Amino acid sequence: MEKVRTVAVLGASYGGFRAAQLLATSLPNGWRVVLVERNSHLNNVYNFARYAVLPGHEHKAFIPYDYAFGNSINTDTPHIRIHGTVTSLHPNHITYIRHSLSSSSSSEPAPEPQTLHFDYLIYALGSHLPSPIDLWEHTRERAQHLDKGRDHDKTTGTGTKGHGISWLRERQARIEAAQSVLIVGGGALGIQFASDIAAIHPLKKRVTLLHSRTRLLPRFEPALGDEVLTALQDLGVQVILGERLDLDSLRANQCDGMDENRTGSVFHVRTLSGREIDAEVVLLCTGQTPNTALMRDMDSRAVGKGGLIRVTREMQVLVEDENRTSSSQAKRTIYPHIFAVGDAADAFGALQAGHTAYYQAEVAARNVVRLIKREARRCGSLSWSEGDGEETEGEEELEEYTPGLPMVKVSLGLTRSAYEIGGVVGTKDDGVPDLNAAAMWGACGLKEVDEEGMWR
Questions:
Q1: Mean pLDDT over residues 104-131, rounded?
Q2: Strands of 271-423, DSSP E
Q3: Kind of pairing, strands 281-284 and 120-123?
Q4: 20 to 30 A from 22, CA-CA: which of 88, 262, 269, 370?
């Protein structure tokens, strides 16, 4: 029996999910996709901030992977989804640990790592999220997650929908109980938290947004930042620009035994300029860290500035082949079979966002297919090209990725939003409380889902 060959996809968020979809519908017979993801459901993280404040919709953020391998549920498929965590990456195999769908007990033996060999791999593990929306709490050692009584090197998530719902409900209760909230960071996440808290709890809470830059959303047109600033002020949010939080003042509160999950305590913090701010809840919405440790451990040369994975325009992991001589200006890599997309990739200044990961994943998946096609033709195999309607002479060039113009949409309360697309700034007033969750479910293949169905 001929050996089944494997394209591994690590991570099944916006980029990995799209890569798996394309590959599953494009690979020839004898090939399979193996999708490895630590969560049981796709986490629609763009809705986490809203659902961490507004009760009743938290279950809608977690979408089943029913259609990860195409447009229909097909039980007779070679493709496999593994609910587990990758523990090591090597040039031709990974190791991983499977997760249990039930809550694990400390008395249960740790599962044994398993090995998966691959022919091609797409690395789509994204980034560790800012702590206010990090269900896995990778950055517990930062700021309000400091607690000397805990082991900060261990993740605390189970990767299940039930755990995610409970986590969001805990945040809802904490914000509901607080009289004052400080949000640090004036990016899209901080803006959404500030506007949602002010809109959902009008006149009940003192909401402060602290941003180190002199304007909000500095990567975009100034008109967008101005529109957002006006909207926040209209909601009663105190916006402080051009000042940076002194993290030592925040750490001092933890040294005194304060815990971010307790209510009734007040954080006394200050900025580097000396401005003092009191708040019962502090939300650090300051950036995210690329999840590239596995790649660095495999080959440190693959990870460059800012901890991002170096890639070619074809989205292949870039470690130059020093022994190859070529007149071409294109960079040749010793890992042509390994690709990286999304927040983990240093993709030529591309905005780190879900839609960016989606388009990069399409380029990577199509290039994997092209490389497999090349191999099939060189080996004289006709199984690939039969019926594909394409010429078989010559080799199709790999597709190159070019970033588009940065675009963004930020909610400004329950109904209002501001956006920039193609350099055009505008506003809308057609929002709904659950941020139109059904649209994302539909994009993941569940087009007819109703409210009850979103509990799956």
A1: 86
A2: 276-279, 281-284, 289-290, 309-310, 338-340, 345-346, 408-411, 417-421
A3: unpaired
A4: 88
Q: What is the pLDDT of residue 154?
A: 43
Chain-centre distance for alpha carbon 13: 6
Long-range CB contacts (within 8 A, 24+) of 314-320: 314/339, 314/363, 314/364, 314/367, 314/398, 314/399, 314/400, 314/401, 315/339, 315/340, 315/341, 315/345, 315/347, 315/360, 315/363, 315/364, 315/367, 315/401, 316/367, 317/123
The percentage of the chain sitting over the pLDDT mark of 90, rounded to a whole number, equals 75
CA–CA distance from 427 to each of 219, 293, 367, 416 (Å)? 18, 39, 38, 7
Q: Is 265 exposed, middle or buried (0-12, 13-18, 19+ CB in 10 A)?
A: middle
Cα–Cα distance, 301 to 120 (Å, whole number): 19
How large is the average pLDDT for residues 328-354? Answer: 89
In DSSP terms, 345 is beta-bridged to 309
Tell me the DSSP string of 291-334. Answer: --HHHHHH-GGGB-GGGPEEB-TTSBB--B-TT---SSSSPPBS
Q: Is the pTM of this model over 0.85?
A: yes
Pairing label, strands 276-279, 114-117? unpaired
Helix (H) or strand (E) segment spanning residue 363:
helix 354-378
What sign does the CA torsion over 20, 23, 29, 30 have? negative
3-state secondary structure of 223: helix
pLDDT at res. 74? 62
**Nearest-angstrom CA–CA distance, 320 and 334:** 6
**pLDDT at position 265, please?**
83
Least confident of 72-81, 240-249, 281-290, 414-423: 72-81
**pLDDT given for residue 252 in this prediction:** 80
- The answer to whether 33 touches 69, Cβ cutoff 8 Å, is yes
Tell me what pLDDT residue 97 has. 95
Query: DSSP letter string over 239-271?
Result: EEES--B-HHHHHHHHHTT--TT-SS--EEEEB
Tens of pLDDT, residue by residue over 157-197, are 578 999 999 999 999 999 999 999 999 999 999 999 999 99
Q: What is the DSSP code string of 111-168?
A: PPPEEEE-SEEEE---EEPPGGG-TT-TTTTSGGG--TTS-TTS-----SHHHHHHHH
Q: Would you tell me how many other CB atoms lie within 10 Å of the CB of residue 228?
A: 26
Do the beta carbons of residue 77 and residue 27 sit within 8 Å? Answer: no
- β-pairing verdict for 5-10 and 31-37: parallel
**Which residue carries 């799956």 as its tokens?**
456
pLDDT at residue 411, as a whole number: 96
CA-based max dimension of the chain: 73
